[in-house]
Specification:
Length: 149
């Protein structure tokens, strides 16, 4: 059964937690359901925070740029904050969703950090150009960047 608990150290919004059994060694633990943050083109550019796992683009009246964090720092901090990710109980991914359907007119550009890549394309941002498109990014095993899925 989930419960909404204020997460006052970040957005001040509520986060849903679920009680999960991780086997006889670890037992029962409370795990956060991956939080989503609402963003709009009015705030462009938007920088993905270390604690972000999902971005819902809710207002898209102009093109939006989303800057990704260093994949290495994002993974290290995610595992430090949620060690259960190492056990496979939470998916280590970042997703971005066009909720308004306005991406064809106002593209959403996802810019990787520094030398990081998306789908091994060096210095090439990814663009969401289809209405209501969802982009799910996973860290590469060698942490050189992200791959889409």
């Amino acid at each position: 059964m989930g419960a909404l608990i204020p997460q006052l150290d970040q957005s001040g919004g509520a986060v849903q937690w679920v009680r999960t059994y991780l086997g006889p060694t670890i037992g029962w633990v409370h795990l956060p359901v991956q939080p989503a943050r609402k963003v709009s083109s009015a705030a462009s550019p938007v920088t993905v925070g270390i604690g972000d796992y999902g971005l819902l683009v809710t207002t898209l009246a102009a093109p939006l740029t989303i800057n990704l964090p260093s994949v290495t720092e994002w993974v290290q901090q995610s595992i430090k904050t949620h060690p259960q990710m190492m056990l496979g109980s939470l998916e280590l991914s970042l997703w971005i969703k066009d909720m308004t359907g306005n991406a064809p007119a106002n593209n959403i550009t996802i810019q990787p950090f520094g030398p990081d890549t998306i789908d091994a394309l060096v210095a090439t941002p990814f663009k969401i150009i289809q209405a209501r498109q969802l982009l799910r990014l996973y860290p590469m095993p060698d942490l050189s960047g992200w791959f889409s899925g």
